[in-house]
């Protein structure tokens, strides 16, 4: 039991204990890293798994020779693409059924027109959403599910899914490879990650706020 708890603790905090994990499990670390990235992006119930910091730290261990850079990048890109694909397919299978369940309790709280609006949004802005969501924890877990639930076109989703996965994995792993072993960065990694998240989220929020204000202003002008 203690061994199992230790293993679970390592998985949930592998971004902090990756060195110990490599020492204990050796090459199995590649399979574990693949599963973590796949689960975080593919299973909507697991948004708490490490993502950005895990890729960064993985790159740092590649720089020390403990992991192979090319192999890690390929595995994580495949994990990110297949994870998002599974999440999209789950959303595509479950979403419309939930909105068309004809269950009074659900009908009261769900608006079918909202699903259509979401579909229209994803057809128009879904590409940017899928790519940007890669860099925002929790959001990247839910974005492909919502894209599937709103029936975003498969080909359109997959194109931006692949682009987003490549950008996310390459950027963070290579940043870790070149800068991850600098003592200052290792010490303040969590702060740096939060700043990076803020840099990704704030422009999106400001853009959404600007559109809302313009829309309200247009409505006021018509009255």
From TrEMBL:
Q: Which InterPro entries match?
A: DedA-like, VTT_dom
The record's annotation in Pfam families points to:
VTT_dom
- VTT domain location is 49-177
Q: Which PANTHER family match?
A: INNER MEMBRANE PROTEIN DEDA-RELATED, TRANSMEMBRANE PROTEIN
Q: Which family does it belong to?
A: Belongs to the DedA family.
Q: Point out the gene that encodes the protein.
A: dedA_2
This protein's GO cellular component annotations are: plasma membrane
Regions crossing the membrane: 27-49, 69-90, 159-179, 191-210
Localization, UniProt: Cell membrane
Protein topology in the membrane: Multi-pass membrane protein
Has the keyword Cell membrane been applied to this entry? Answer: yes
Q: What is this protein called?
A: Protein DedA
- Source species of the chain: Paraburkholderia ultramafica
Question: Would you say which domain of life the source belongs to?
Answer: Bacteria
Name the keywords, alphabetized.
Cell membrane, Membrane, Transmembrane, Transmembrane helix
